[in-house]
DNA sequence: CTGAAAGCGCTAACAT
DNA sequence: ATGTTAGCGCTTTCAG
């Protein structure tokens, strides 16, 4: 940034121009203290004439908290994060909060750094979005950040991830990963599928873990034997879905359906099926998770579980500013199945192969 | 945010703990001034032990500029903006800058407000992303903001939009909207199309205006007569693409190809074609613009013009901190055609109808 | 190479 | 209802 000292107009200028003290100007600007209608008008006028804009940093310093919240996502363009970010940004705007966004790119270490960066900015709240790593050291370090943040008057809010542990000063808003997975696997089961491949996200990532757990519970409840060979853990990406299914097909896939752990993975699964000349849902049924726009762009349209991502973001933004011991500091929003065209009854029991 | 005063650790604490003055601590933290290796070590140690994190607001106040840049997009989830935002965020992180993101939702008034908000935060740079309105009053007001921002030591950077006017303190990084459109229409022409419908973005939005201009120039250069009935102005959305093409098909479409002014519009065009039982590209060729992921997810894969969105964002972030009179304050990044499967030679001259 | 001290612009007691 | 004033935590001359 250029180095000029910035000849900005200050509160004092406004005070001088309207013939009142800086305290009065501050009061009309904050609007949280009685001021005579007349003087208020004079001040407002002076503000407009001088084109005065408040120095948010000075205010944050004086108030020891900024009107800013921070949101850390894995990737800004991933629609899962994108919709949550949109909810956060919109609600924040309504609440008069600015929104600092940062991307961890899936790195736990980076995430920790980003929380510190946000602490440095004295963000009123720091929202951690999406699944978290099941890692002892990480959890300990984040817990320490949670305490520090709380000490400093900020909030750590977990959005779509499990709590850090007992008695920690965090609040959260999540959705039922396990339940959604249970429901969609149950749907597959109800249609007659018994051999279902699970193509999922990163090892020990909470999102994946819970989805897999829901899948497993559905299988158990329907008395379908668990088969480790059917679960494939890797990434939440189209690339992973594609290479995984391609490989399975090469080896001969003994399944009639695949549960893609999110819609992005489903995209890859569709591609692999297409490459192999396998028809969805005729030869292979596919379901996803998240219900992002691509689900309706795929052909056949993808059956998936819908998560109210934007609403999740809005709530997270609110949790940034609610007082510490609110009654429902931890809430859960519902998910629901969206049944489209990617599932049919299994055709016959046979091994699926490329070509 | 909870009201606690924030018992944060300050520079003074670190100074006390390491037995030096606050000035010295400040110097090692800023790293822009010679400090004895020994004392530097002591300070660094104290910082770690106390878990000290700098107060960014205090620093910003003292320096009269924050290590923050602002980015204003129309919509966080739109991939056009998303990829640019990703580039901005990534480059900003590399440069040690935090990134405030705000969404204008396409409102000029809101955009102006957001710039003022970012001014309040003393952002070192404010990046305005995407096409801008061709509106006199708006332009005047934004020009005024540009001057104010420059006065205050900040930068206004235009990313993917035309300059505000002569002699204004702005810098910009764009791509060739007109050229890309010229190229892709030329491609359609080369394949034999003569009747091409243009289904485009918002009236007077620069992006749309330039794309349409390029389209027109290609037509002229190939000696194809201009037909106003073939251009349809509206929104950059799938919904607009769909309703527009549906309506055209209902009335009977005398064209063999459609130029969707961006990929989102193309999505809608595909849907309408599908609804009407019209095959792409057999009955109708389609091209888009932007080359966002959906282009490869569509079937047939969409031919479109690729814009280096993320790179655009990275450059924009850099422009936020380059000194005022840099040699190339205004740059243009190239676009290129990506030819996939959505174009074929026109089948025959006939009117396309639904059903 | 290090310290002392005067701000940066605003807020929030405390007066009046 | 309004003014006074002491900070908020860091940077940056200016001395030493």
TrEMBL record, chains A, B:
Gene Ontology MF, one: DNA binding
UniProtKB keywords: DNA-binding, Transcription, Transcription regulation
All copies of domain HTH lacI-type, residue ranges: 9-63
Transmembrane segments: none
Pfam families associated with the record: LacI (PF00356), Peripla_BP_3 (PF13377)
Alphabetized InterPro entries for the sequence: HTH_LacI, LacI/GalR-like_sensor, Lambda_DNA-bd_dom_sf, Peripla_BP_I
SUPFAM superfamilies (alphabetical): lambda repressor-like DNA-binding domains (SSF47413), Periplasmic binding protein-like I (SSF53822)
Leader sequence residues: none
Protein name from the UniProt record: LacI family DNA-binding transcriptional regulator
């Amino acid at each position: 940034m250029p180095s000029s000292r910035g000849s900005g107009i200050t509160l004092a200028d406004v005070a001088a121009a309207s013939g009142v003290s800086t305290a009065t100007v501050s009061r009309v600007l904050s609007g949280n203290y009685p001021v005579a209608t007349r003087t208020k008008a004079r001040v407002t006028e002076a503000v407009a004439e001088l084109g005065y804009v408040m120095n948010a940093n000075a205010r944050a310093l004086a108030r020891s908290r900024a009107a800013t919240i921070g949101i850390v996502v894995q990737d800004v363009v991933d629609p899962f994060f994108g919709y949550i970010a949109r909810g956060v940004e919109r609600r924040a705007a309504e609440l008069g909060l600015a929104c600092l966004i940062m991307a961890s790119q899936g790195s736990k270490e980076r995430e920790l750094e980003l929380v510190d960066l946000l602490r440095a900015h004295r963000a009123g709240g720091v929202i951690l979005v999406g699944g978290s790593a099941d890692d002892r050291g990480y959890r300990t370090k984040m817990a320490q950040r949670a305490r520090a943040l709380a000490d400093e008057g900020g909030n750590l809010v977990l959005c779509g991830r499990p709590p850090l542990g007992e008695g920690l000063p965090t609040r959260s808003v999540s959705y039922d990963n396990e339940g959604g997975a249970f429901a969609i696997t149950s749907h597959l089961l109800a249609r007659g599928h018994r051999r279902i491949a699970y193509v999922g996200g990163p090892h020990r990532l909470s999102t994946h873990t819970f989805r897999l757990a829901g899948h497993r519970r559905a299988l158990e409840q329907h008395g379908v034997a668990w088969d480790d060979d059917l679960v494939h853990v890797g990434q939440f990406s189209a690339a992973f879905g594609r290479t995984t299914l391609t490989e399975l097909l090469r080896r001969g896939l003994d399944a009639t359906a695949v549960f893609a752990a999110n819609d992005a993975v489903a995209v890859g699964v569709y591609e692999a099926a297409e490459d192999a000349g396998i028809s969805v849902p005729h030869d292979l049924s596919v379901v996803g998770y998240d219900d992002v726009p691509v689900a309706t762009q795929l052909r056949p349209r993808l059956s998936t579980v819908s998560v109210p991502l934007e609403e999740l973001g809005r709530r997270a933004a609110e949790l940034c500013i609610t007082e510490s011991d609110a009654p429902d500091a931890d809430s859960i929003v519902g998910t629901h199945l969206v049944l489209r065209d990617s599932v049919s009854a299994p055709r016959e029991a046979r091994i699926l192969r490329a070509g």
